[in-house]
Amino acid sequence: MRKTVLVLVETVDDYLPMLEQAGYRLIRAPSPQLRAQAIQRHADDIDAVLTRGPLGLTASEIDALPKLQIICVIGAGYEQVDLAAAAARGITVTNGAGANADAVADHTLALLLALLRDIPRADASTRRGEWNRVISPSVSGKRLGILGLGAVGLAIAKRAHLGFDMPVSYHSRTPRQGTPYTWYDSPLRLAEAVDILVVATPGGASTRHLVDAQVLAALGAEGYLVNIARASVVDTQALVAALGDGQLAGAALDVFDDEPAVPDALKALGNTVLTPHVAGQSPAAARDTVALVLRNLQAFFAGEAVLTPVRQ
Q1: Which of 121, 137, 184, 234 counts the most CB atoms within 10 A of its CB?
Q2: For the chain, which domains are there?
Q3: Which residues contact 268 (CB under 8 A, 6 or more apart)?
């Protein structure tokens, strides 16, 4: 029997035909209004949901879908999916761990270079006919700290270590075996030891405000923060205060608390680089993400183990 997938995501449209070609019926609902309408009208048909971390799937929505068997999340984060409600129904949850790691890592290094070398302001001033030859810090040799050493963190570490000769340290719940990088047992101790702190850990309650005022103070007036993970991991108010008071040299952010709204306080600062949550987006990443979703769906409906299960 043909399976029906409710698609809540809006960033991989060009590659969704891969699912249709495999025989899946898609119901596309990329806005809150269309989402509510689709669940109301097609509740008895939906076998699977395709979502992403910030969009999630609530307990009430799960309860409203009696045939739902699997939730596939694109990207590594799944913070707004109600895992308890899914587990209570025996619904499998998968994520896209690793599928867009290269794109995110590339963007991270682009942000890091733009921030330290002050590329956006140099470009803007040159276009205005100015010739401001400001001396900016070098990136090579800086001590890099990574908060979270999953697929994305590892890809960032590889680029930084091999490409820019950066000593790499990291914090995760436990040391990761088989890596040449230095482990610290807390975000605070990591921040004390590095020049640049990259946030690459999933969002959710367990990581909320891991980077707080104390961690930012430890990073210091010559330190930099790059966040390509989830805004919730960083205390935004503390970050704005540290940037404004000169307690932190700069920050590059691809994620924000209330997307697509970006705080005016961040936009007003001259020591920030801001991008609209695009780190994981590239044609190759979108293709690989949908391909992984398809492989998970095919395995699940064939009665086999899914490739990237989320522990519930």
Answers
A1: 234
A2: 4-97+283-301 (3.40.50.720), 101-274 (3.40.50.720)
A3: none
pLDDT, tens only, 59-85: 999 999 999 999 999 988 899 999 999
Q: Which of 230, 287, 304, 311 is catalytic?
A: 230
Are the beta carbons of 216 and 237 closer than 8 angstroms?
no
Residue 230 annotated to the active site: yes
> Is the distance from CB of 49 to CB of 95 less than 8 angstroms?
no
Token reading at 24: 């899946």
- H/E stretch holding 147 reads strand 144-147
Upstream peptide bond of 137 is cis (omega within 30 degrees of 0): no
DSSP code of residue 232: G
Going 21 to 25 to 31 to 34, the CA torsion angle's sign is positive
Which residue in the list 42, 161, 277, 295 is annotated as catalytic? Answer: 277
Number of H helices, E strands in the chain: 13, 12
Q: Mind listing the pLDDT tens digit for each residue in 237-249?
A: 999 999 999 999 9
Give start and end residues of each alpha helix (H) in 169-268. Answer: 187-193, 213-219, 236-244, 264-268
Answer whether 0.90 is exceeded by the pTM. yes
Peptide bond into 260 cis (omega under 30): yes
The encoded tokens of residue 248 equal 């932190």
Residue 259 known to be catalytic: yes
Q: What's the length of the chain?
A: 312
Q: pLDDT, tens digit, for every residue of 14-50?
A: 999 999 999 999 999 999 999 999 999 999 999 999 9
Q: What is the mean pLDDT of residues 167-187?
A: 97
Given the residues 10, 20, 259, 304, select the one marked as catalytic: 259
User: Is 312's pLDDT higher than 80?
Assistant: no
> What is the per-residue pLDDT for 11?
87
Contact 239, 248 (CB under 8 A): yes
Segment 227-237 mean pLDDT: 97
- DSSP lists the bridge partners of residue 92 as 70
117 included as an active-site residue: no
